[in-house]
UniProtKB/TrEMBL annotation:
The protein's name in its UniProt record: Solute carrier family 43 member 3
SUPFAM superfamilies: MFS general substrate transporter
Main localization of the protein described in the UniProt heading: membrane
Keyword hit for Transmembrane helix: yes
Membrane topology type: Multi-pass membrane protein
Residue spans crossing the bilayer: 12-39, 71-92, 104-127, 133-152, 189-209
Listed InterPro entries: MFS, MFS_trans_sf, SLC43A3
Subcellular location field: Membrane
Organism: Ataeniobius toweri
Keywords from the named record: Membrane, Transmembrane, Transmembrane helix
Gene3D superfamilies noted in UniProt: MFS general substrate transporter like domains
Presence of the UniProt keyword Transport in the record: no
Length: 324
């Protein structure tokens, strides 16, 4: 059935491409927090915490260290939620499958974008739950897209690596919002647009992803998403072939063959390999989050409170990317 094979190939390519765009444009946006802080300061979020101070040379200056502490605390809580909830989200994914997990993530991501959109200097504390919701929704986008690699057989590891790279690269989203804000686009308009994009996430959930999971290795003519009668017939054929294949494998030789004992979850959890890898990853994550959370006050200190110089340092990576 060449027509069916072509349809499956097109659907798999669409699933991969839209998943890459989803990870690149939405999933890891919270890691661009340092860029968004400049926008929030311009809109006078937590500006009441800035106080007049006197320098050593008796000149007056505006001390906004308490404001920076609030912004750092917002990111600290969001990054904690991003990592701490990964384990229960993994159980949620295993128990309920792709559709339920993604709808759960889309809800949190939409709530986060709406909270930022309708926040203001008077409602600055909405940023605390908003950024946490964005972090939770974003990591669920990545988790549910990882399985797309199963559709491409030997290229599975390449697809997963691309998605991870796109997840980290999506930190540029807040930098783009910052540049748009400098061009006159309001923070509310930008985040309302991100919230409206949830419709795309929902459509992709039902049409380009399975209800449960993408198996590995992939069965012949495997279909997923909202399907027509032809696809249902193909699924029936696949199920019949898999039953025949499993029955053929259950010969007396294979039935009496010794079964290799798999390691339990507890044994894996207490293994030296896992513990050392967990320690290494924890140190790397700590360095990563510490840099993002302290980048804005560090730039402010190095530029002696000159906003234009801080903007230049943050905008330089994106401008170099466009030049290339």
């Amino acid at each position: 059935m060449p027509g069916l094979e072509n349809n499956l190939s097109v659907r798999r390519c669409l699933t991969f491409a839209t998943g890459l765009v989803e990870c690149l444009c939405f999933a890891g946006a919270v890691f661009g927090w340092a860029s968004l802080v400049f926008v929030l300061k311009e809109d006078r979020y937590f500006s009441s915490l800035c106080v007049n101070a006197t320098r050593l040379n008796s000149t007056q200056t505006l001390d906004c260290s308490a404001q920076d502490e609030q912004f750092s605390l917002i990111f600290t809580i969001a990054s904690f939620m991003n990592n701490f909830l990964t384990l229960p989200h993994g159980f949620l994914f295993d128990r309920f499958g792709t559709t339920v997990t993604r709808l759960y993530g889309i809800f949190f991501y939409s709530m986060g974008t709406l909270m930022v959109a309708f926040s203001s200097s008077a409602l600055a504390y909405l940023l605390f739950p908003a950024l946490s919701f964005l972090a939770v929704g974003g990591i669920l986008f990545l988790m549910t897209n990882m399985q797309v690699g199963n559709l491409f057989g030997s290229r599975r590891s390449t697809i997963i690596t691309l998605y991870n790279g796109a997840f980290d690269s999506s930190s540029a989203l807040f930098l783009i919002i910052k540049l748009l804000h400098e061009s006159g686009v309001s923070l509310r308009a930008a985040f309302l647009f991100l919230s409206a994009c949830s419709v795309i996430h929902i459509l992709r959930t039902f049409f380009l992803l399975p209800r449960k999971f993408i198996p590995y290795p992939l069965p012949d003519r495997y279909t997923y998403g909202v399907s027509c009668g032809e696809s249902k017939a193909a699924n029936t054929e696949v199920a019949a072939n898999s039953q025949t294949h499993s029955a053929a494998e259950e010969t007396p030789l294979t039935t009496n063959a010794p079964v290799k004992q798999e390691r339990t979850f507890r044994e894996c959890l207490l293994s030296k390999f896992f513990i050392w890898h967990l320690l290494w990853l924890s140190v790397m994550q700590l360095r990563h989050y510490l840099f993002i959370g302290t980048l804005n006050p560090m730039l402010q200190r190095l530029t002696e409170g000159e906003p234009s110089l801080g903007n230049t340092h943050l905008n330089t990576p994106l401008s170099q990317t466009f030049r290339l």
